Amino acid sequence: MIAVDWGTSNFRAYRLDGEGAMVARRSSPQGILRVAGGNFEQALRAEIGDWLAAGETQVLLCGMIGSRQGWVETKYLPCPAGVADLTAALQPVPFPEARVLLVPGVMGSDSAGVPEVMRGEETAAMGILDACGGEALVCFPGTHSKWLQLSDRRICRFTTFMTGEMYSAVRNGTILGRMMAGDVSAAGAAFLAGVARAGQEGGLLHHLFGVRTLGLMGRLGEEDAASYLSGLLIGHEVRAAMQGQAVVHLVGTAALCGLYAHAVHACGGEAKIENEDAAALGLAAIGRRVHWI
Amino acid sequence: MIAVDWGTSNFRAYRLDGEGAMVARRSSPQGILRVAGGNFEQALRAEIGDWLAAGETQVLLCGMIGSRQGWVETKYLPCPAGVADLTAALQPVPFPEARVLLVPGVMGSDSAGVPEVMRGEETAAMGILDACGGEALVCFPGTHSKWLQLSDRRICRFTTFMTGEMYSAVRNGTILGRMMAGDVSAAGAAFLAGVARAGQEGGLLHHLFGVRTLGLMGRLGEEDAASYLSGLLIGHEVRAAMQGQAVVHLVGTAALCGLYAHAVHACGGEAKIENEDAAALGLAAIGRRVHWI
Predict the structure, then answer these.
(1) Is residue A134 assigned to a domain?
(2) Is the domain of B17 the same as that of B117?
(3) Does B233 touch chain A (CB under 8 A)?
(4) pLDDT tens, A56-111?
(5) Chain B residues touching A73 at Cβ < 8 A
(6) Residue A249: which CATH number?
(7) A112 contacts in B (CB within 8 Å)?
(8) Nearest in space to A113 (alpha carbons), one of B267, B214, B189
(9) Are B240 and A206 within 8 A, CB to CB?
(10) Domain for residue B138, yes or no?
(11) A163-173 vs A225-242: helix axis angle to the nearest 10?
(12) To probe the interface with A, which of B118, B157, B162 has the most A CB atoms within 10 Å?
């Protein structure tokens, strides 16, 4: 089987054997927004045509490829959702050389009834069920960070935070960006100072102004300001999302998970960094339940 | 006397009679960032030369003109600061045709010891002391909103919120901007829905994502999205800044004060919109104490 995590910015494919073990992997920057003319059939062939020629006939896709901007738009599946629910809602995609199925995204709502949506993280969460025991708080840090509450091996609710996108918007679109040189470094003193600041009075809109005044007063160097801002935003996210829970399972790139793990620790929690290829594991778990013929 | 509120984006001048009453006023977009080559002497002459030629010899300036990017950099005066403190710290500026004095900015710190600075609002606050009784919470909404706590006719502390600048950064630098058509309208249902949302669980980084999902689900039209975002940000600011206080005195443009007044009411407070020319009144109050000769 071929498992594909096809997101906005990246294409990641995994070749799995009969037991779902990974025998090959590849990735490219052919995210859905970069596919010329929206010709996803041709793009998929270009990426994994050699594996298909070698005899693979089963392809399982997840991610933004199932969005309105993707290949075939799938309806969001409501929470709670587990492997069986996702498998039952797979959407066939016309493709000559192989059977192609698409995992739907999942929708929910927060405590105030405001809708939540995701495409991709639901599948990756299914990939770490054994690692986290099926009862866990799982965080996918990023542009739009997702926090999923798993219960009885299903996603029962989830929450999104625009942390990564706000970091970019603040850095590139406000006066604070002019106080910064260089990128966010590993979780050092400036990052942790930002995380701690997030727990103080005044709220984010006030805390952001401190990046400027601390810089003006010589208490925050321009080489530390990006890390402080990152800590401030991630600190606000982690404090709002943890809600007193002790253990946070992190899925993402090593660098980002490292920053979040430090923030979780600083907020009194425990962080466990899970397999970065959780999406491949989740697709394998779903694929095992599919009657492919 | 001539009173000048010289900010980053605007130049506002007032001609006052011996009692401090306004006899003429004018404004231009010659804020300090638009003064060619930093030639502030020439810029001032261009703006008010006719008043000087008519016999005025006393000029009092406040605002960002006293910043590092301005004419003469003045040291920040520490809190608490009142009319007498500001008058005692006036900074002379060399100018051939008249005596020119500059009101310093004020500095303080929040409950966590993070520094706060302002230039201009301290003077405007002195202009509404009689209107608010000298014991009041005063808000100057804007790019960097300032909330000043007055006690015994002095500024005892103040807090900044990057609300206006964040609105622009979110609108112009994130995916949310693509969900919006048109500008913020008067405080209507969408604005108030944003203000109410700010009081719910999850924090600002989460609430921002709701602008996207409510739009995706057809629950927030693109013509309402800017007002909702504005209400969300102003709601977060007002809730953090009011801290249970009942009356907020607002100084600013009529449109912005109108939005803030609605937000204050929605958060259980009472809003009083003060004279928009508070800076002129404050400069008059300081000018009366100066021994000009």
Answers:
(1) no
(2) yes
(3) yes
(4) 999 999 999 999 999 999 999 999 999 999 999 999 999 999 999 999 999 999 99
(5) none
(6) 3.30.420.310
(7) 197, 200-202
(8) B214
(9) yes
(10) no
(11) 150
(12) B162
CA distance B127 to chain A (A): 25
Is B154 part of any domain?
A: no
Same domain, A6 and A114: yes
- Spatial contact of A155 and A149, defined as CB atoms under 8 Å apart: yes
Do A87 and A178 lie in a common domain?
Answer: no
Q: What is the CATH number of the domain that holds B9?
A: 3.30.420.300
Of B111, B162, B213, the CB nearest to A208: B162
Burial class for A199, CB neighbours closer than 10 Å (0-12, 13-18, 19+): middle
d(CA A216, CA A210): 9
What's the domain range around B120? 2-127
Residue A193 shares a structural domain with residue A260 = yes
In whole angstroms, give the CA distance from residue B280 to residue A221. Answer: 37
Q: Report chain B residues whose CB lies below 8 A from the CB of A158.
A: none
β-pair partners for B106:
B77, B118
| B110 inside 8 A of chain A by CB | yes
Number of structural domains, chain A? 2
Chain segment B24-54, per-residue pLDDT in tens:
999 999 999 999 899 999 999 999 999 999 9
In this structure, the answer to whether residues B111 and B200 fall within a common structural domain is no
* B149 falls within a domain: no
Same domain, A32 and A109: yes
Q: Is residue A245's pLDDT more than 80?
A: no
B214 shares contact with chain A (CB less than 8 Å) = yes
* Mean pLDDT on B234-254: 94
Other beta carbons within 10 angstroms of residue B271's beta carbon come to 19
